[in-house]
Amino acid sequence: MSTTLLINIKEMLQIRDKSTLKVSGKDMQTLPSIKNAFLLIENDTIVDYGVMNNCPKINPDDTIDATGKIVLPAWCDSHTHIVYAGNREQEFVDRINGLSYTEIANRGGGILNSAKMLQNTTEEDLYNQSIQRVKQIIKLGTGAIEIKSGYGLSVESELKMLRVIKQIKKEFPVKIRATFLGAHAFPEVYSNNKKGYIDLIINDMLPKIAKEDLAEFIDVFCEKGYFSLEHTEAILEAGKKYGLVPKIHVNQFNAFGGVALGVKHKALSVDHLEVLNEDDINTLKHSETMPVALPSCSFFLSIPYTPARKIIDSGLPLALATDFNPGSTPSGNMNFVVSTACIKMRMTPEEAINAATINGAYAMGISDEYGSITKGKKANIIITKDIPSYNYLPYSFGENNIETVLINGKIF
User: Tell me, what's the pLDDT at 155?
Assistant: First the structure.
C-alpha cells in the first residue's frame, strides 16, 4: 500500500459526504471547503482529510507541501469528441470570412469533413492523435472524460472510433466513459435515404457495439437538419434495448421538443441548450436529467450561451463541459470553460466549480466515485499554483494556474 499526504493546504474545496451526487439551484452557490487542511490518500483513494491540527502522525510514502495552494477535485468533462482525425482550421477561416456553421456543413464541411478524414485514418494513427489530446487535458486538470464517437458515420469507422476509446480506457489511468453517437449527421450516401441510415444504426451498428462492449451511453444530435424527434426516439429506444443509457445533443440552434424527449427516455444529460424555453425548464424540473452547458462552443462559434442563470435560478442543477471537437470547440481546457461560464454566463465561481466537478461527474453517472473530496472516492486531485483564492481561477482566464494533477493518487 502506498500513502500520500498533502499538508498545509491553503484551502481545500468541494468537501462532500458520500450521499451528495449533484447540487442544484441555490445549493450551487455553496462550495464547502476547509482552510489550512490536510488530505490523506491510500493507493488511489481518499481516506482522510481535515484541519492541519488534526493531521495524523504517520510516515507516508510521499508528502506534498501545499502551502499557499488550493486543492480541489479534478475536473469532470462530461461531453467531448476527443477522438478525431486531422483538424478543421480552414473552416475556422471560412467562418471569419462570413460563412455560417450551416453553410459550411451544406458544402461538405463540418461533421462530414471530419468523417471523411477519419475514414481514411488507420486505427493506430487515430489512437496516436487522440492520446496527445488526452495527455494535454489531464495536465490541465481533467480527471474524468466522456468521449463520443460520431465522426465515423459508417459501421466500420464508428467501431474504429469506439475501439480507440476502449484502448485509451485501458492505457490511461483517467476515468473514461464511452458514448455511441452514430446519429451525429447523415452521411452523404444516405442524404436521400434517412431511414436507411437509421436502420443501419439500429440493425448493424448497435448489435456489434453491444457484442464488443464498446459503449455505456447512446447519443443523438437532435436538431433541425440533422435528426428529428422521430429519428431520435427510434435510436434511443434501440440503444436502451442494449443497455445503453440515453444522452442527447439538443437545443443548440432550435427548441422543438428535444428536451422533453430526453426526459421521457430518462436521459442522463441533455447537452448544449443554447436555446431554451419555459416548457424545457419545467420539463427538467420534474426529472433526474442533468442540463449540460458548453460555453467554449458558444465562444468559438459566436452563438448564444446557455442561459445558466435561468436554469440555476429555476432550482435546476447545471454541469459544464468542453465539447472538445475539431469543428466547433478545438479545446479541452476546462479551466477556460469555468472562466467563460463566469464571464459570459454570469455564474459565480462557486457555481462554476460545482458544475465542472460534482455535476459533471453526475452527467457521466460516476458521482459516487468522482467529483468531490469525499472519503472513499478516487483521488483525482488538482493542486493549484500559489494563488490568492479560488476566485482567481476563473478570474485569470489566460493563465494556467495548475501546478500538479494527481490521477488515482499518483502525480500525472
Answer: 97
CA distances from residue 29 to 25, 107, 275, 282 in whole angstroms, order as listed: 8, 45, 24, 21
pTM of the model as a whole? 0.96
Torsion of CA 137, 360, 179, 86, to 10 degrees: -30
Q: Find out whether 186 and 197 touch, Cβ atoms under 8 Å.
A: yes
Kindly state the cell numbers that stand for 372: 468531490
Using alpha carbons, select from 206, 356, 376, 371 the residue that is nearest to residue 293: 356
pLDDT in tens, 32-49: 999 999 999 999 999 999
Look at residue 247 and tell me whether its pLDDT is greater than 90.
Answer: yes
pLDDT, position 4: 97
| Per-residue model confidence (pLDDT) at position 24 | 98
Does 218 have pLDDT greater than 80? yes
Tell me which residue of 13, 57, 63, 17 sits closest to 35, measured CA to CA. 13
Average pLDDT score over the chain: 96
Give the C-alpha separation, 179 to 361, whole Å.
15
* 242 class by beta-carbon count within 10 Å (0-12 exposed, 13-18 middle, 19+ buried): middle
pLDDT at 356: 98
- pLDDT for 112 equals 87
